[in-house]
Amino acid sequence: MQSHGSSLEALTRWVDEVARLTQPDEVVWCDGSDAEYAGLVAHMLKTGDLHPLNATTHPRSYLHRSHPSDVARVEHLTLVCTAEREDAGPNNHWMAPADAHAKIDALFDGAMRGRTMYVIPYCMGPIDSPISRCGVEITDSPYVVANMRIMTRMGAPALARIEREGRFVKGLHSIGDLDPERRFIMHFPDELTIKSIGSGYGGNALLGKKCHALRIASHQARHEGWLAEHMLIVGIENPQGDKYYIAAAFPSACGKTNLAMLIPTEGYRRAGWKVWTVGDDICWMTPGADGRLWAINPEAGYFGVAPGTGADTNPSALATLGHDAIFTNVAVTADGQPWWEGLGEGTPVTDWQGRPYDPANGPAAHPNSRFTVSARQCPSWAPESEDAQGVPLSAIVFGGRRPSLVPLVFEAKDWAHGVLVGAAMGSETTAAATGAVGVLRRDSMAMKPFCGYNFADYFAHWLSFDRPGMKLPRIFHVNWFRKDADGRFMWPGYGENMRVLDWMIRRVEGLARGHETPIGTVPAPGELNVEGLDVPPATLDELTRVDVDGWIDELNAIGTYLDGYGERMPERLKAERLRVSRALDAAQ
Ligand code: GDP
Ligand code: PGA
Ligand code: MN
Ligand code: MN
């Protein structure tokens, strides 16, 4: 890493090196222009990388069908390569850097023969923000270039910033031969380097996103005193015009994009509440001079889950998708419109693999089918997404898919308790990563697949923000996914989640007293606004009840989980767990 300098020498040297290794037919430096994007699209329509969609209903929108074995992140093939295994931690797969380079460079040898190599300078975050960071991705996939154009500030302005700063994250990507046996996503945090081969899927191939903005950035953040998190950022404006910003960490496919684009239910809308979208997946937060945490969304677009996105659940997302979108692995209707389960209208005739739709083959759209679209197209896009200093956070929310035990909402006692609540997060696995779906696992801060270093050190870093002079956000935990005995969701979710955000804001303002329990503060009877809500009172009681016996078991399981990190686990966190355990015992 160079800390100063004003030339692109290091970059051109690296590009030459990569070209010598991978042997592309041609090297193209991307400028990020409209003409370049149009040219790439035209090229991909010819090669079959993209398929046209109905140009009347979906102007300039296209479908990409990936290889059927390449539809999600691959956590077992994702490695963090630090000199010491312990620094990557039990939460990561690890390989010694020299071995890792040797292994993956052998796969890159000649990998781009017959292909074009694209050089993509990009900036994560507003182009003029001191919090933003630049990178360069080299790839042989035009699909990756088109997606990076939507997801990041890509091209000439990023290159100019790199030239000024002389430092950037190096990301090398090739789709290789798409053989899962020759697929790896490797991170070298000490070298600010990423190498990814054998997959074209977003999380594995759009290196600015998970690889840079989370795994590499979390490592940098630890050393530089900030946080790189798997969080949405949403702005909530009350009828008086005050804006509150909330960041929320939910695991992949657990509701971040939906909460970020929430449309308040009618009662709130009529009263004058508004919701603004700052980010839907990644949040970089830095302590400001005022002691508050200030957050930016390093991304410029959404790479969202298609299934379940409908006019009744997320009308904002549908409006965002009206034009200039790329759809990956969705189904198609007879008149060429994209289709997925939960869209609510239309009939699929072609499934995500391009076969005539037959329910016997499973869902028409892949459960992890995605859309890529510019954030600015969202009707609730917050103009302050471009603010160089970011937005100040009033609250941080953790949550996951918990079919039982975990209440709709509770608030942590203080920061240290909140860190425990985040560390203890559990959630059912989803189709966003390959492997079994619906298995409960610990996913601390929703960062299990994304933290670029040992979780024990990560929790210590989180705890370190609790120091004099800080005005830290309040920490909450939510669960939209409680199920009844018949397996139905007990809470209507989506727009109705506004009621929970409203309670949080009243807590922040000291306007809701809450009901203290051993696990934290839940809404006191009558505090949650239930006007017009179609949930039986008994269900609401159940959703806000704390099952002491169940939580005693949960805290024991959390203890076992934390102990798995051995000596490195901060004493402060272990003490916090013990405190909650004892409070539960006393309540029994
Ligand atoms: P993300 O991957 O974390 O951004 O999650 P999304 O917002 O894309 O949602 C993933 C899936 O969960 C989609 O199928 C949504 O329809 C569903 N979902 C999101 N929010 C809710 C909610 O409040 N309740 C329920 N039951 N499902 C939700
Ligand atoms: P998600 O983003 O969190 O919106 O699902 C992609 C991912 O995490 O793989
Ligand atoms: Mn994500
Ligand atoms: Mn999302």
From TrEMBL:
<comment type="pathway">
    <text>Carbohydrate biosynthesis; gluconeogenesis.</text>
</comment>
<keyword id="KW-0210">Decarboxylase</keyword>
<keyword id="KW-0547">Nucleotide-binding</keyword>
<feature type="binding site">
    <location>
        <position position="252"/>
    </location>
    <ligand>
        <name>substrate</name>
    </ligand>
</feature>
<keyword id="KW-0312">Gluconeogenesis</keyword>
<dbReference type="InterPro" id="IPR035077">
    <property type="entry name" value="PEP_carboxykinase_GTP_C"/>
</dbReference>
<dbReference type="InterPro" id="IPR008209">
    <property type="entry name" value="PEP_carboxykinase_GTP"/>
</dbReference>
<feature type="binding site">
    <location>
        <position position="230"/>
    </location>
    <ligand>
        <name>Mn(2+)</name>
    </ligand>
</feature>
<feature type="binding site">
    <location>
        <position position="210"/>
    </location>
    <ligand>
        <name>Mn(2+)</name>
    </ligand>
</feature>
<comment type="similarity">
    <text>Belongs to the phosphoenolpyruvate carboxykinase [GTP] family.</text>
</comment>
<dbReference type="InterPro" id="IPR008210">
    <property type="entry name" value="PEP_carboxykinase_N"/>
</dbReference>
<feature type="binding site">
    <location>
        <position position="73"/>
    </location>
    <ligand>
        <name>substrate</name>
    </ligand>
</feature>
<dbReference type="InterPro" id="IPR013035">
    <property type="entry name" value="PEP_carboxykinase_C"/>
</dbReference>
<dbReference type="Pfam" id="PF00821">
    <property type="entry name" value="PEPCK_GTP"/>
</dbReference>
<feature type="domain" description="Phosphoenolpyruvate carboxykinase C-terminal P-loop">
    <location>
        <begin position="226"/>
        <end position="578"/>
    </location>
</feature>
<keyword id="KW-0479">Metal-binding</keyword>
<feature type="binding site">
    <location>
        <begin position="368"/>
        <end position="370"/>
    </location>
    <ligand>
        <name>substrate</name>
    </ligand>
</feature>
<dbReference type="GO" id="GO:0004613">
    <property type="term" value="F:phosphoenolpyruvate carboxykinase (GTP) activity"/>
</dbReference>
<keyword id="KW-0342">GTP-binding</keyword>
<dbReference type="InterPro" id="IPR035078">
    <property type="entry name" value="PEP_carboxykinase_GTP_N"/>
</dbReference>
<keyword id="KW-0464">Manganese</keyword>
<feature type="binding site">
    <location>
        <position position="281"/>
    </location>
    <ligand>
        <name>Mn(2+)</name>
    </ligand>
</feature>
<dbReference type="Pfam" id="PF17297">
    <property type="entry name" value="PEPCK_N"/>
</dbReference>
<feature type="binding site">
    <location>
        <position position="370"/>
    </location>
    <ligand>
        <name>GTP</name>
    </ligand>
</feature>
<protein>
    <recommendedName>
        <fullName>Phosphoenolpyruvate carboxykinase [GTP]</fullName>
        <ecNumber>4.1.1.32</ecNumber>
    </recommendedName>
</protein>
<comment type="subunit">
    <text>Monomer.</text>
</comment>
<feature type="active site">
    <location>
        <position position="254"/>
    </location>
</feature>
<comment type="function">
    <text>Catalyzes the conversion of oxaloacetate (OAA) to phosphoenolpyruvate (PEP), the rate-limiting step in the metabolic pathway that produces glucose from lactate and other precursors derived from the citric acid cycle.</text>
</comment>
<feature type="binding site">
    <location>
        <begin position="201"/>
        <end position="203"/>
    </location>
    <ligand>
        <name>substrate</name>
    </ligand>
</feature>
<dbReference type="InterPro" id="IPR018091">
    <property type="entry name" value="PEP_carboxykin_GTP_CS"/>
</dbReference>
<feature type="binding site">
    <location>
        <begin position="253"/>
        <end position="258"/>
    </location>
    <ligand>
        <name>GTP</name>
    </ligand>
</feature>
<feature type="binding site">
    <location>
        <position position="401"/>
    </location>
    <ligand>
        <name>GTP</name>
    </ligand>
</feature>
<feature type="binding site">
    <location>
        <begin position="494"/>
        <end position="497"/>
    </location>
    <ligand>
        <name>GTP</name>
    </ligand>
</feature>
<keyword id="KW-0963">Cytoplasm</keyword>
<feature type="domain" description="Phosphoenolpyruvate carboxykinase GTP-utilising N-terminal">
    <location>
        <begin position="13"/>
        <end position="222"/>
    </location>
</feature>
<keyword id="KW-0456">Lyase</keyword>
